[in-house]
Structures are given as structure tokens and as C-alpha cells.
Amino acid sequence: MSETEAISPASGTRVAAADMNAVRPAAPLVPHLEHDRIIARDGAALPLRRWLPDGTPRAVVLALHGFNDYSNAFADSGATFAASGVAVFAYDQRGFGAAPARGRWAGSDRLVDDALTATRLLRERYPGVPLYLLGESMGGAVAILASTRMDPSQAAPDGVILLAPAVWGRSTMNVFERAGLWLADLMPQVRWSPDLIPVRIRASDNIPMLRALGADALVIKNTRADALTGLVDLMGEALDAAPRFRSRALMLYGERDEIVPRPPVMRFVAALPPGEAAHQRVALYPRGDHLLSRDLEGPLVVAGMLAWIERQDAPLPSGADREGRARLAGRPATAAPSAASGARPSWQRAPS
Predict the structure, then answer these.
(1) CA neighbor of 304 nearest in space, from 239, 244, 253, 232
(2) pLDDT value for 189
(3) Is the pLDDT of residue 171 over 70?
(4) Neighbours of 188 (CB within 10 A)
(5) How far apart are CA 161 and CA 88, in angstroms?
(6) Percentage of the chain surpassing pLDDT 70?
(7) Rounded distance, CA 210 to CA 68, Å?
């Protein structure tokens, strides 16, 4: 037999090696949902968690976790959502948690494709039920890009919730931060530990929760340099996508956020399509840190998300969305306190 021939397993006849793919085509891979995982388009198995209400849900949420975190990030909020009749599904994104290639950066396109696949699968699982995309930090950047890259034949989510979205691209970094990324580009496999950072950055005021994250083996503690630069590129893409982001949206940001600085968030909001402002709401929390839904005031944030899912044209119970864009940009708010509960909205109360 020549080097250019092979035996066809189907017929036992000799065929040209170059024609083997035609003789035995690979079986088409169909993405699908299983009980505890999502099978992606390339066959990767992404661990899946779900929090389900009794009976048919009134809405479904696909939740995307942040950098170095995993799907368990939504354990508390997912349980609260489920108790209110909203189903929550969250998977470990590639490179995180128990997903394939842990610690390695999968690339923006792959992360976005996984989100689009999961969105479509949940639409098929729950036809006619409102579907929302929720992204925290890095997950927010993925949600933004997924919303802008949705195939016209695929029904877009009924709304997008962005929790402290990571939109801090290179163009909004100072010279020292860019220099750090340049060093990371030179040493892509070097692992950067939080212990090497001289200034402590607080992600939340919920210390017991932070300690639990530190003890969780599935939370990544030491980050590869190429994963860090990949994250920055993703954040930059999300920032640049602002003019194309036309989804109904609720964006929540904490004024004490030390992870995603305020200026790039302001820039993202300012670049959103002007015609969409009526259904793209900004909620600002003076006591909020980066992990808003897990902060000490997390229940207030979760209640706001649920209220927005219930009725997107009504103000949030906390009043955090009152003149949110103006307050984010540093302009004084002129609205009067909400009379709904007789109490001042959280953004009007003095920080403790």
C-alpha cells in the first residue's frame, strides 16, 4: 500500500488518504444541556449549577461569573431568585472553576461563543419564558459582547444585567498599568500572586465571604500573566462595543469599587447608544464594592435585580437608579427622595 492510500473502515477498500475525511466524516457535534454540565460546540464540558423554583419559572437567568471565580459565585443570589420564581443557570467558564484548561485564557471569542450557545440552549429548554443574561465583572464583559454578536436568527435576551462590568481596557489605563501589562506580555506563563501586590485591594466589605473564597480550592489564587492580558483585551473589546450595545439593560456599580475604576465605567455608559437610554438603566450604590451582590448590602442589590426583571420600566425599590447616569458622571442629583417606603433611598443616606 502506498503512503497516500489507506483502508476505508466502512468498506475495506483502498482510498486515497486525502479522501479519508470524505469516507468517514466526523459526526456533527450538537451542543446540549445536561443536568450538571453544558456541552459546548467543540465538545468541551462546562460544569453547570442551577437554582430552580417549584413549577414553571416566570423567568430564566443565565449567570456568568467573574475572573478567577466560578459558577458558585451565584449560590446565594441564585437561591433568592429561585425562591421568587426565577430559574438561574450558571456554568464554569473555560479556564475557571472545574472547566477545561483551568488557569489558561481561552480567548474572548471562545468565552462569548459559549455564552451564545448557553443562551440558545436555555431558549430551547424554556420556550416563551423571558430570558435574561447576567454578568458579573468579567462575566459582564462577556455578556456585553454576546449581546452585540447575537446571530439575527437567534432570539436576543429579554434583558441584560451587568454587575460591576469589567470594561477597563488598555486605552483607559495609566502608563504604569500599561507597563505592567507589557511585562506580563513578555512573561506569559509567569503566575502573579495577590501577595506580590503591595497595596491591598478590597473586593467586598463582606469579610466572611472573602475568607470563604480564599479557602475555596476552585477559586484561582495565582494568575498566569497571559490570562491577565487576555482579560484586559476582553475588557477593551467590551468597552469598544458600547455604541453597539442596544439590549435592555440594568447596570449596577458600587462607588467603592476598587477593582474596576469609575472612569472607564463612565466612559462605557457615555458611549451607549443615545436612543437606548430609556431602557438602559444605571444604578449606583454608595456603599457598594466590586462584588455587589455578595457585599453586606447584597440583598438590596439582589432585590433590585429581581424588581427590574419583574418590571423594567419601574424604579428600583432602593432608589439606586434615580438619576444614576448623572450621579455616575459626578453631576449632582436633583430628584426628591422616594415616597414609596417613607425612607430615603440608599444613595441619599450618608455612608457609615
Answers:
(1) 253
(2) 52
(3) no
(4) 14
(5) 13
(6) 77
(7) 13
For residue 113, the surrounding DSSP H or E stretch is: helix 108-125
**3 state SS for the chain:** CCCCEEECCCCCCEEEHHHHHHHCCCCCCCCEECCCEEECCCCCEEEEEEECCCCCCCEEEEEECCCCCCHHHHHHHHHHHHHCCEEEEEECCCCCCCCCCCCCCCCHHHHHHHHHHHHHHHHHHCCCCCEEEEEECHHHHHHHHHHHCCCCCCCCCCEEEEECCCCCCHHHCCHHHHHHHHHHHHCCCCEECHHHCCCCCCCCCCHHHHHHHHHCCCCCCCEEHHHHHHHHHHHHHHHHCHHHCCCCEEEEEECCCCCCCHHHHHHHHHCCCHHHHHHEEEEEECCCCCCHHHCCCHHHHHHHHHHHHHCCCCCCCCCCCCCHHHHHCCCCCCCCCCCCCCCCCHHHCCCC
| Average pLDDT of the segment spanning 7-34 | 53
Q: Reply yes or no on whether the pLDDT at 20 is more than 60.
A: no
Q: Regarding the domain delimited by 30-348, which CATH topology (the fold level of the hierarchy) does it fall under?
A: Rossmann fold (3.40.50)
- 338 band by pLDDT with thresholds 50, 70 and 90: very low
The per-residue pLDDT for 71 is 98
Q: How far apart are CA 156 and CA 227, in angstroms?
A: 29
The pLDDT of residue 43: 94
How many whole angstroms separate alpha carbon 117 and alpha carbon 91? 12
Which residues fall within 8 angstroms of residue 328, CB to CB, at 6 or more apart? 253, 262, 265, 266, 269, 282, 284
Residue with more model confidence, 340 or 116: 116
